[in-house]
Amino acid sequence: MNTTPAPAETLSDPDTPFAVVDVHKARRNINRLAARADQLGVALRPHVKTSKSLGVAALLHDGTPCPVTVSTLAEAEAFADGGYTDITYAVGIDPHKLPRVIALLRRGIALRVLLDSRAQAQFVADTAREAAIAIPAQIEIDCDGHRGGLKSDTPELTEIGHILHEAGCLDGVLTHAGESYFAYGAEERRLAAENERGTAVAAAEKLRAAGLPVRTVSVGSTPTAHAAEDLTGVTELRAGNYVFFDLVMAGLGVCGVDDLALSVVVTVIGHRPEYGWILTDGGWMAMSRDRGTAAQAEDQGYGLVTDLAGRLIPQLVMSAASQEHGTLTARAGADLPDLPIGTRLRILPNHACATAAQHQGYHVTDSSPNSTAPAPAIEAFWPRVTGW
């Protein structure tokens, strides 16, 4: 079945709800972090898990394939098909997925896998020997207790390093400061970035002290990438959300609301004045159930509301959602705007990764021209990679 939407000229044309990427804002976000990586003297390896789109990724390096990070082998395969040859698969590997890894390596793709246990290291080493091809592997380091990984001072680190090295598979170490998504001040983010760097470098030094080669020392999250002041000892910086940003990042102070490059167009389909509700056709199936700003100083509900041109409608928030219905309400003390049935709006998401995952692709607009048109032009449609 052909899932590519029919040609559309403006945001007034496609059936709602649908996702929109503003390439002007995305490019601005991309250039900001690229400049910071240059200033810090490290390579930038963007994480494409947010957009999962070759079209969006083409913005990263002027259309030329660059090193990337992926979260699924489906992404790795799609990006390999798109000409990307330097890929890190930054989710812990399991034995069942290794045949697909080997297939990509045989195609000439430099694909790294991630692991944090002796069992994983052993099956990677055994598979590499059996296939007669090295499987570059990075050891995941736990810098903040957020998720997986080894502590940098555990004896298991060098044991795993030896297992990988003896099979020609040890590439380096990787860490991710997941707790930085709860760092609510600039100093907290700076400290998270320094802890992320220090933990990864300490792990690398421990492996080197054991006579093991460490080629890659990889760190990164969107908050720490923008907060880091010193990346001595680090070889590469990873981040993904920064291309689109979202309300969680805005709430942390990493970006402003005007930097959000992803939105979802919805249509007003009803009113319940007795409750102070405006109903739209965009529920959690369009926005996701993510309520990441609920723990922040300002709860943004399921998203903030703009007009079709992207201008924020003051004090209007998507406060509730069912599967295919969104409920818009005014914040306390504010008047509900007059938005007739048929009015198209854009919703700015809490979590760009989760909202993007609800859609097959993105209608692309560009807000850089000085235009007062009520319905921005659609320049392209960029499909997303789906599945695992």
TrEMBL record:
Keyword Lyase appears in the UniProt entry: yes
Keywords in UniProt for this one?
Answer: Lyase
InterPro entries reported in the protein's UniProt record: Ala_racemase_N, D-amino_acid_metab_enzyme, D-ser_dehydrat-like_dom, D-ser_dehydrat-like_sf, PLP-binding_barrel
**Per its UniProt record, what Pfam families does this chain match?**
Ala_racemase_N, D-ser_dehydrat
Domain D-serine dehydratase-like, first and last residues per copy? 261-366
Tell me yes or no: is Lyase among this UniProt entry's keywords.
yes
**Which PANTHER family does UniProt cross-reference here?**
D-SERINE DEHYDRATASE, ZGC:162816-RELATED
Q: Which family does it belong to?
A: Belongs to the DSD1 family.
This protein is called what?
A: DSD1 family PLP-dependent enzyme
Organism field: Streptomyces hebeiensis
